[in-house]
């Protein structure tokens, strides 16, 4: 064998034997867990590559609400790999979509308890944790299962909170007490935490007036390094804005969702927003409204002191002849013409024409670069916008429109849109991300 080995020349070996570690690591990075395991059996060098920290920094585990045998096996395998290589993990995302019975939630809770326990012992690198859309207020989460999961997560955050930079618990749907228990775990050691990005949108159950809770205000006072914050409007209060002033040197973005089923009638003083905007000079606020379309409600929320960058108004196809969008478009939104950069409008305005109002609003908002509209419009509205863009009356970079019509056949409108596109083709291709269609709602 020694003599035969001496006869083997380097040029006779496979090119894979000379592949640099950096390139080989990149090849492994694209492989799934099963293929990585098989590749690790090829030789000692490839086996060592299996233990490269670069391969295990990011992991996503998806638990199906209606699992098959194949999917169950994949989940078990994914959890096993996280436990084995957990010491390298920096970013963990867990998804558990629409479980349909308590057996699945129990299995998820037990699996997560073991996974989090293992990571809390072996990992000291985790920076990011995302567990979204658990909807813990659903009946499939029995009280004992829910309590056990919250305890496991709280214990894990107590140990890992001092290093965690990003936490996303969007859609958890907890009570105020349960939600604050988990968030308080982040500051268990030092009475403060280092979280810079926090997503607690839909974190609390519907119908809860979180803004009235002293416990929530106390919990949020432990966050001193926030750069980005996502939450619902039912959490906003003058006291919360005062606490956020402690993050003035770092705070850049606040994303606020306001849903019709969430309490949103609280009074917020404009001076509270003004103080926060004055201290957090780089702050941008983005509002997302769902089925809150009446001018009176919007005007109570959208105060002129808020440094608003983006507004999204969605009626979710609901039509209400008792309200008009015209006052909002004429009187309210132009208040933010000096700061508004993104505008999304999805509403059923079958009872009123808004073409002129929308066109004037776009022209008045000189910083507006993104405009998306789903509404009943005349096709000529598209040409008016493109004409204004050509004449430099607006500076859009993204223009998306779904033009609703009550007609079953849309051939005539489609033909008109094609003619408009041909007329402004050079402008569209050079300046715009452009998408316009006619949509029949018959």
UniProtKB/TrEMBL annotation:
InterPro entries named in the record: F-box-like_dom_sf, F-box_dom, FBXO31/39, Leu-rich_rpt, LRR_dom_sf
Domain F-box: 16-60
One of the record's GO cellular component terms: SCF ubiquitin ligase complex
Annotated keywords: Ubl conjugation pathway
A Pfam family hit: F-box-like
A GO BP entry: SCF-dependent proteasomal ubiquitin-dependent protein catabolic process
Keyword Nucleotidyltransferase among UniProt keywords: no
SUPFAM superfamilies: F-box domain, RNI-like
Keyword Nucleotide-binding: no
Quaternary structure (record): Directly interacts with SKP1 and CUL1.
Function as written in the Swiss-Prot or TrEMBL entry: Substrate-recognition component of the SCF (SKP1-CUL1-F-box protein)-type E3 ubiquitin ligase complex.
Stated name of the protein: F-box only protein 39
Gene: FBXO39
